[in-house]
Amino acid sequence: MATSVYDIVEFELQDGQVVEIRPLNIKRLRKFMEVVGKISDVKPDDQDGQLDAMLEACSIILEGKVSGADNVDVLADLLDLPTMNRIMEVAGGVSVNSPNPTVG
After folding, report:
1. By three-state DSSP, how is residue 12 classified?
2. Which end of the chain is flanked by fewer CB atoms within 10 Å, N or C?
3. Residues 6+ apart with CB under 8 A from 70
4. Contact 68/79 with Cβ under 8 angstroms?
């Protein structure tokens, strides 16, 4: 029997649908990390810019799992901030609760 080295976490979105999130594979993690770099480049008082970058990062995570995940307007209706933060943490190992996003 194979041993999994990561956890799969289920999240309920704002519309009630449930998605399973696991760590990203390396190919998608690279795309994700490029977008996460944008979050730290956004000025601290630009909350819209930070949210947009976080939504873009979540679109990479939710691609293929949620219909319309490539549209940030759709995601903005499906996600709240705590769920978005936790999804990014599970999938990409990134904590954005602090002023500077960190990996780990």
Report:
1. strand
2. N
3. 59, 63
4. no
Q: Which domain holds residue 89?
A: 9-103
Task: Classify 9 as helix, strand or coil.
Answer: strand
State pLDDT tens for residues 28-82: 999 999 999 988 888 888 989 999 999 999 999 999 999 999 999 999 999 999 9
What's the CA angle centered on 52, arms 72 and 73, to 5 degrees?
A: 20
How far apart CA 75 and CA 62 sit, in angstroms, is: 9
pTM above 0.90, yes or no: no
Q: Answer whether residue 2 is part of any domain.
A: no
